[in-house]
From TrEMBL:
Record flagged with keyword Nucleotidyltransferase: yes
One Pfam entry name: DarT
Keywords: DNA-binding, Glycosyltransferase, Nucleotidyltransferase, Toxin-antitoxin system, Transferase
Residue ranges of every copy of the DarT domain listed in the record: 6-195
GO molecular function annotation: DNA binding; glycosyltransferase activity; nucleotidyltransferase activity
Protein name: DUF4433 domain-containing protein
InterPro entries membership: DarT (IPR029494)
Amino acid sequence: MHEYIQELQYIVAITNIPSILENGILCYEMASTVAHTSVALGEVQERRAKKRIPGGLPLHRYVNLYLNARNPMLFRLMKNVSEDLCILRIDRGVIEHLGVVLTDRNASSDYVTFYTLSESVGKLDVERIYARYWKHDDQIEEWEHKSIICAEVLVPHIVTAKHIVGAYVTSEHSKESLLRAGFDREILVYPDMFFNMQIRRRER
């Protein structure tokens, strides 16, 4: 089942790594009580704050992992934030945890469908989720693909640090930052994952 899922992915500022290694990846609601560097987009979080999973919890009580973090959200962050980012690689076994929900597109979308693991079989557009690009000549098709490529795996409350198997970074500089943050798992320098873009860093 879901053999195409090799790993799950989580976009995060490297400055948050020490806290994540100690406390795990926290849902938005829990993270709001902990000092951290947020790269969340305000207008997106406003939409997510109004969502509740049918038969489940409010959306902000789930950790949102991506099937493919090389998506419009990451592209926007790479253009507009100045924090070093990494993509944490999460053990695919997390999808089998109790209460996990899969989405067929961005969870804040008006057109999203929420599935249990068994319900999602055959329902996700795998080709478009794992596509390299979402640009299309047809604007409507592009908007839809931008949402689908952001399909999520929603994990209630927390993903513990033991499920983090590694990380992608965009440069050797970011790898050094991640190592200094205490990250002790495999680090892959993978510029293409980040659209071969470098973070525009603030003056320190």
